[in-house]
Amino acid sequence: xxxxxxxxxxxxxxxxxxxxxxxxxxxxxxxxxxxxxxxxxxxxxxxxxxxxxxxxxxxxxxxxxxxxxxxxxxxxxxxxxxxxxxxxxxxxxxxxxxxxxxxxxxxxxxxxxxxxxxxxxxxxxxxxxxxxxxxxxxxxxxx
Length: 143
Hints:
The protein has helices spanning 5-8, 20-30, 35-57, 60-77, 88-106, 123-131. The protein is mainly α. The termini are far apart.
C-alpha cells in the first residue's frame, strides 16, 4: 500500500497518522457546510499550506492571506472534490502552490523572514469570518 502525504500528517491531538479516507470524509462533510469539519481540516493542514506558500511567495503577509484564501476555496469547492483524481492533501497543496506562484509572479518584493516561521494566531478567526462562521472562539493557532 502506498502512503500519501495525508497519511503522514497527524489529526487533532491524537498523534496517530490520518488515513486518506478520513481526509476525504472531512471534505465530504465540508461540502454541505459542516463548519467543524472545516476547523478540523484547517487544524491538520494550515501550517503545511502556510509554509509552502511562504516559501514560494517569499512574503509573510501574502502567505497568511493566501492561506486563508486556500481554505476559503476548500469551503466553496468541497462539493467538487474528486477523490479519484488526487488526494485531499494534494488537492489543497496544489491550490496553495498555484496561488503562491500567481502572487509571486506579480509581487517583486524581497522580504527577509526568520528560518522558523508560523502564521499569526488570528488566521482561523479571519478565515471563519470570511466563510460566515460566527463563533470564532475556537483557536487552533494559539500556542
